[in-house]
Write a structure and sequence with these properties.
CATH topology of the largest domain in chain B: ABC transporter involved in vitamin B12 uptake, BtuC
Helix content of chain A: over 70%
Number of helices of chain A: 14
Number of domains of chain A: 1
Strand content of chain B: under 5%
Shape of chain B: elongated
Largest interface: A-B, 68 and 61 residues
Number of helices of chain B: 19
Largest sheet of chain B: none
Number of domains of chain B: 2
Order of helices and strands of chain B: HHHHHHHHHHHHHHHHHHH
Structural class of chain A: mainly alpha
Strand content of chain A: under 5%
Number of strands of chain B: 0
Largest sheet of chain A: none
CATH architecture of chain A: Orthogonal Bundle
Order of helices and strands of chain A: HHHHHHHHHHHHHH
CATH superfamily of the largest domain in chain B: ABC transporter involved in vitamin B12 uptake, BtuC
Oligomer: heterodimer
CATH superfamily of chain A: ABC transporter involved in vitamin B12 uptake, BtuC
Helix content of chain B: over 70%
Structural class of chain B: mainly alpha
Distance between the termini of chain B: 73 Å
CATH topology of chain A: ABC transporter involved in vitamin B12 uptake, BtuC
């Protein structure tokens, strides 16, 4: 059991927290038909982090977070500007902006001497969940030992804070979020600041993406923004239940994905673990596929009778 | 940028920077042209981001193809084999996007995001499997993520060039039906074009471009080649066929320039440079395009503002009302219609009388002609001479009565 606490507990917790933090705003993005915002944000985080590294010269938490958050906001503003100024459909505007920013990030990264620090494109894409181990732990008792707790990988408290913040925000702004998501016009007549709510949602998504990105890479971020909420959408017609389902699916994906990545190959006779981030995304996809085939509310309203 | 860089850049542009980079530049140019032209149809169908799902969905196919080729005792890194595998898994991904969007109530953007992230995640799993295979350590499949042109083999370059040329050929052959379908699918169906078939052809083209582009640009950025040139081309014309041609030209130019730039100095990755050149062309178009560009829109806005202030200022002069608005005063002063102290010049008085008469004629005209075609043209700026014939205006003047002197009485004298 000691090995579990040392090697697997923290990555597992970080994975679950990251999945939940992304799935919560993902529900609202999905219903607002902005699901791909998560995709765009997780691509533009890379240039943000590289620029932050160029400015500060170090890889520390706050500059990275600020850089990534700044890049996400720049991207959202740029997408909006391109869409309005050029009268371009939102999907194409998004495609123009996030590919260009990602390309700039890769170019900057290649041009910079990053040999001394751990920052590269592969890491940005699929993170290194497996490496976030808790070496100073020697059993469950360490959870109460301040000395051992000080040796926790810094990603865990950061991810926990981000997940808690997002859960809190979702709870506090539940009614305005729900109203403006389902009927923006009605919400506006009630005097709700719909534009601010919309921007706030994107910023919350960016916070989740940036916090999760550092620990688990962008591929989980995109998968968790979309797959658990999409599967949950096929399970129920009530927003409350949809959010609950999405949290359950996100947790299940993270746990099952981590376990399968770590032990699955051994069961199949292999010797090496596979990428946990990739496996978590894969499991979330399998859950979504099952929901698409079996979910009680999978069909469009009215489509069942026609088909 | 020093002179050495420019010399290297010019040499690369003239295909004199070595055999390999010349091959890459030609291949990238062809690929860019095919992607730009093919992406246009996707863009006009408003499905630009489907290509992102297609691109990411290639990764598991690359992994599976590698594993299969190794298991069959092959080399594993043969480019045609990997490309074939990527095409198969991209097809599966595309099919799933369509199936989810059609059969479930999830919108297409959710389907795109789900497919791209799950396929990509599964591809990463396969890559880690391959890394642990005895022959896989040097596989270098990661290079498909961001593309890599260093050490490209002659055979690879030929594959890319031939593939790009074939795609350009397909666009040339099918441009008519593809144009019709992406412009107006209902009309296309009514005139006997198989919308489903043409849609499939468009998707096949997109997939071909994606697969060929993997080696140079990489699967994360190849979508940019399909999206940015058509969006850019749309700024320059309102005609569908021209969007296709311009997008092809822009894409080809971006591919060629980007490849030449990257050959000019070390540490300049080809894929990102092609994307950034393309984005640079986009920004130029966004700002400077003649009708839809930002500069043109600003100019139109200023022009309109000027016209409104001029007309309202002249009307105020004619009606002897005081003008307080600074911009109005500035416009009138600049055109010599009022003196610096605010008193009207003879020219200003004449213009004011003319504008007032125009406004009064409009008043009558809007009562006489109640239909949209005439009354709807009234916007407070258009001169009535531009809308009615001389006879009709004479009739209006008859109803208005004889000219009266411009003075304070006018306000009360409106019939």
């Amino acid at each position: 059991m000691n090995a579990f606490v040392q090697l697997d507990l923290t990555p597992l917790l970080i994975g679950v927290l990251a999945a939940i933090a992304c799935a919560l705003p993902g529900n609202f993005l999905l219903l607002r038909r902005q699901a791909l915002i998560g995709d765009a944000i997780s691509h533009v985080v890379l240039p943000g982090i590289v620029v932050a590294f160029l400015v500060t010269g170090t890889i520390t938490t706050w500059p990275m977070m600020l850089g990534a958050g700044g890049a996400a906001i720049v991207a959202v503003v740029l997408i909006e500007a391109v869409r309005r100024l050029g009268r371009i459909e939102p999907g194409a505007a998004m495609g123009v902006v996030f590919t260009a920013m990602f390309a700039a990030g890769v170019l900057l990264l290649e041009q910079t001497d990053t040999s001394g620090v751990h920052i590269d494109v592969e890491h940005a894409l699929y993170g290194s969940l497996e490496s976030l181990i808790w070496l100073s732990a020697d059993g469950w008792g360490s959870l109460l030992d301040p000395v051992a707790l000080a040796g926790l990988p810094p990603e865990l408290p950061r991810m926990a804070a981000a997940a808690a913040l997002i859960a809190l925000l979702t709870g506090v702004f539940w009614r305005p979020l729900k109203l403006s998501t389902f009927d923006e016009g009605f919400a506006a007549t009630l005097g709700l600041p719909v534009a601010a709510i919309s921007l706030g949602l994107v910023v919350a998504a960016a916070v989740a993406a940036v916090a999760a990105f550092d620990a688990v890479g962008s591929i989980i971020v995109i998968a968790m923004f979309i797959c658990p909420p999409a599967a949950a959408r096929l399970m129920t017609n009530r927003l409350e239940r949809q959010v609950a389902w999405s949290v359950a699916f996100a947790t299940l994906s993270a746990v099952l994905g981590y376990v399968l990545a770590g032990w699955g190959p051994l069961w199949l006779g292999g010797t090496h673990a596979v990428s946990a981030a990739g496996m978590i995304a894969t499991v979330s996809g399998v859950i979504l596929a099952l929901a698409c085939l079996l979910g009680p509310h999978r069909a469009r309203v009215g489509a069942a009778r026609e088909a | 940028m020093d002179t050495g860089f420019w010399q290297a850049f010019l040499a690369a542009l003239a295909l004199q920077a070595g055999y390999n980079s010349a091959l890459v530049a030609v291949g990238a140019g062809l690929l860019g042209a095919a992607a730009g032209a093919g992406g246009t149809f996707l863009f006009l169908r408003k499905r630009a981001l489907v290509s992102d799902a297609v691109a990411h969905a290639t990764l598991p196919g690359i992994g599976i193809a590698f594993i299969l080729m190794v298991m069959l005792g092959g080399e594993g890194r043969s480019l045609p084999g990997l490309l074939l595998g990527s095409a198969v898994s991209a097809t599966v991904g595309l099919f799933l996007v369509e199936w989810i969007a059609r059969r479930t109530r999830l919108p297409e953007d959710a389907a795109i995001g789900a497919v791209l992230s799950v396929f990509f995640g599964f591809g990463i799993v396969l890559l880690t499997v391959i890394q642990t295979m005895s022959s896989g350590r040097q596989a270098g499949l990661e290079s498909f993520l961001l593309g890599s042109t260093a050490g490209m083999l002659y055979a690879d370059a030929v594959t890319i060039a031939v593939g790009g040329a074939l795609c350009v050929g397909v666009v040339l052959l099918l441009r008519r039906p593809m144009t019709i379908v992406s412009f107006d699918p209902d009309w296309a169906a009514a005139s006997g074009v198989s919308v489903r078939g043409v849609d499939l052809a468009i998707m096949g083209l997109v997939m071909a471009v994606t697969v060929i582009g993997l080696k140079i640009v990489g699967l994360i950025l190849v979508v940019a080649l399909l999206i940015i040139p058509p969006v850019t081309a749309r700024f320059w014309t309102e005609r569908t066929e021209r969007v296709v041609w311009i997008a092809g030209a822009l894409g080809g130019a971006a591919g060629y320039l980007g490849a030449a730039l990257s050959a000019s100095a070390p540490d300049l990755p080809t894929g990102p440079l092609i994307v950034l050149v393309s984005f640079g062309l986009f920004m130029l178009s966004l700002l400077l395009a003649p009708v839809r560009g930002v500069a043109a829109a600003l100019w139109r806005h200023r022009r309109f503002q000027h016209d409104v202030h001029r007309r309202q200022g002249l009307l105020a002069l004619a009606r002897r009302e005081a003008i307080f608005d600074r911009l109005t005063l500035k416009v009138l002063r600049r055109e010599g219609l009022i003196r610096p102290d605010g008193v009207e010049t003879p020219d200003g008085a004449a213009q004011a009388a003319k504008v007032l008469r125009d406004e009064k004629r409009w008043d009558v005209a809007r009562r006489v002609y109640r239909d949209e075609t005439i009354a709807g043209r009234y916007d407070g700026l258009t001169s009535i001479e531009a809308v009615l014939t001389r006879d009709e205006i004479a009739e209006l003047d008859r109803r208005l009565g004889p000219p009266v002197s411009v003075g304070p009485r006018i306000a009360g004298a409106v019939p």
